[in-house]
Amino acid sequence: MASLPRMIRIRQEFPRPTIPDLASTMNGELARLRALTAMKAGARVAVAVGSRAILDIDKVTKIVCGYLSDMGTRPFIVPAMGSHGNATAHGQAQILSSLGITERTMGVPIHSSIETTQLGVTPEGIPVYIDKNAFEADAVLLINRIKPHTDFQGKIGSGLMKMMTIGLGKPRGAAECHAAATRYGHEHTIRTIARFTLATGHICAGIGLVENAYHELARVVCLPAGEIEDVEMTLLEEARRLMPRLPFDPVDLLIIDEMGKNISGTGIDPNITGRCMNGALIEQTKPVVRRILVRDLTPESLGNAVGIGLADFTTKRLVDKIDFEATYTNCLTALATANARLPIIFGTDRQAVEAAVTAALPYQSVAARVLRIKNTLVLDDLLVSEAFATELRERHDLTIVGPPHALPFDTAGNLIST
């Protein structure tokens, strides 16, 4: 049995810009969009919403739909989430419901379908698809968060451009995009397909959301279609600056209490852990995290455990919750099969932690540099091992909020939330 290090609870402080009055800010932004003010009464507007658990995404969507209704148009919501929801119309509607977006709460219809219409072919020969309901609308308005992508680094990442290519492309369009990315790279492929889609005139505007490190909305920007690409690059840099981060580097063991699609597109955000999949290999960048243990899967993931392959250790509790069909569908669409690989599985948290600490630092386990976080979204409140004590005293952005203590396990050998 490995000797486990004692842990210290700390709080980490990040810059925290927020939006005091969301409705007022959004209505002001929407009023600037000439594409909306010029719409004829009765026009059908498809409001595209993705699968990410963005704080207040239900409020943002309701404000948009209310504004469009007040203008005399007829808004409806379409899920723009590629192959998520097990690549089914019902599954994607379920994801929207888990985000608080239903016909009852929004006051407008939701048309969920995986049927697409082909818009054409890019100069490279990439077929371009769009959700059939969105295609048949008079206009499409996108809502998405702008943030660094989990699979590649570039001047665009996860945002409105990606929503046009993969989200609105549904399973078929997402598969074509990922296949083309193996030849041309993700960023080039996304830009090419998005530009083609924009040129058709179907997209009237986009709403870019930027979060602070506490995952509160820091900025909302409404963009005419012609400004989406350029402004998204600026917003991505802002999002990158505001992202939370682990307080130390290197780390011997990172214990993650939960992973999930509502937390990151890869379940465990590589922008936080520094660990990502590249084909059959795990690439290690910064920070250096030698071992990862993930304990559970969020209910909001609906069994999709994509990204489990990024961990070294896990629990039977998590594995029992996996919907392998949903997970494999997501990984095969993204051509990221390694993300579905299973780590070493243990029956209890104690067994998993002891094995992980030993594997990380086999001869001095009590001195291991261990962090415990809730998930890769929540990094302001965390536990760190005593090995970081000297560095803690030198950091003004970190506050110690409790004395050192042993990791708390219940009688069944599972970690207790503290």
What does this structure look like?
This protein has 15 helices and 17 strands. It is an alpha/beta fold and 418 residues long. It has two domains: 7-13 and 244-400, no CATH class; 32-242, 3-Layer(aba) Sandwich (Rossmann fold). The protein has a six-stranded mixed sheet with strand order 12-9-15-16-1-17, covered by helices on one side. Strand 4 (116-121) and strand 5 form a beta hairpin. The longest helix has 15 residues, at 170-184.
Task: Just give the CATH class of the largest domain.
Answer: Alpha Beta
Major beta-sheet overview: 6 strands, mixed
Q: What structural class is derived from the secondary structure elements? A: alpha/beta
Unreliable residue stretches:
none
Q: Give the amount of beta strand, in percent.
A: 15-25%
Number of H/I helices: 15
Quick synopsis:
The protein has 15 helices and 17 strands. With 418 residues, the chain is an alpha/beta fold.
Q: What is the fold's blueprint, element by element?
A:
Elements (H helix, E strand, L loop, with lengths): L6 E6 L9 H10 L2 H4 L6 E6 L7 H14 L3 E6 L9 H10 L4 H4 L9 E6 L5 E5 H5 L2 E7 L14 H8 L2 H15 L1 H14 L3 E9 L5 E8 L3 H15 L8 E6 L13 H4 L1 E4 L2 E4 L4 E6 L18 E3 H4 L4 H10 L10 E3 L2 H12 L9 E4 L7 E5 L3 H5 L4 E3 L18
Helix pairs in contact: 1-3, 7-9, 8-9
